[in-house]
Design a protein that fits this description.
With about 240 residues, the protein is of the alpha+beta class. The protein is built from six helices and eight strands. Keywords: Membrane, Transmembrane, Transmembrane helix.
Length: about 240
């Protein structure tokens, strides 16, 4: 009587068993996922002038590409949480400020993330997203984040060429000291706290995420000071210092 063929056996001269082929497919899929994850992480520092600069995540905060600024600002009050609920919110500034001023602005509200940008006239510079450790003193954590942004700019300068390298070098030089480079912050507060922030001097817009959304779920695309009519790309024809 002929025994049934083992489904995991290879034909004589075959290169792989069926089980071997299955494992090869699994390994290939894992390799692709790792590569995609690395590419996503590398894309967190994006040019502020080439359209939407977005940190990774699924819940978008900030204007849609090309959206009229007036329309964006008009819809923000409806995003605030219900009374008694707390939520993360993107606090967008009318101009860049120092980390010390940012710490004073947020007061006792926990800061989850800071968005840095070196303002250079008519020069596209990168938005740099830096997470802050929970529970750390805000002023010190913001200043440490500024230094990390400087290291990232220096790394960009070393790998890029031409104008992009020159821009990154200018950014790194700015971050070397207490620059006015904070353009947005992600804070956690209740409705009253976010309303107070929205009315604070220097704050241009506050958009809240739905209650329960965590910082890693956010995709940030802050409104930039130069975007006065629409969320469109900024010019990049100015001289680099």
């Amino acid at each position: 009587m002929t025994e049934p063929e083992d489904p995991d056996s290879s034909d004589e001269g075959g290169l792989l068993t069926r089980r071997g082929r299955r494992w090869l497919i699994v390994v290939c899929v894992l390799a692709v996922l790792v590569a995609v994850g690395y590419a996503t992480a590398q894309s967190r520092s994006l040019s502020a002038g080439r359209g939407p600069a977005v940190a990774q995540g699924q819940v978008r905060l900030g204007p849609d590409p090309g959206e009229a600024v007036a329309d964006y600002l008009a819809r923000l009050p409806s995003t605030l949480p219900a009374p008694g609920e707390r939520a993360l919110a993107l606090v967008q500034l009318g101009k860049e400020i120092t980390t010390a001023d940012a710490a004073g602005l947020t007061g006792s509200a926990p800061v989850a993330e800071v968005v840095f940008r070196v303002p250079l006239p008519r020069v596209q510079t990168a938005l740099r997203f830096e997470a802050l450790p929970a529970g750390a003193p805000v002023a010190a954590a913001l200043d440490t984040a500024r230094q990390r942004a400087g290291y990232a700019a220096a790394a960009d300068a070393s790998r890029l060429t031409g104008r992009p390298a020159a821009v990154a070098r200018a950014e790194a030089a700015a971050y070397a000291g207490p620059c006015a480079c904070v353009v947005a912050l992600v804070v956690e507060a209740d409705r009253a706290g976010l309303e107070a922030l929205a009315g604070a001097s220097g704050v241009r817009a506050v958009e809240a995420a739905p209650a329960g959304v965590t910082a890693p779920e956010l995709a940030l695309s802050p409104l930039l000071p130069e975007q006065t009519t629409a969320a469109t790309p900024l010019p990049d024809d100015g001289p680099v210092p």
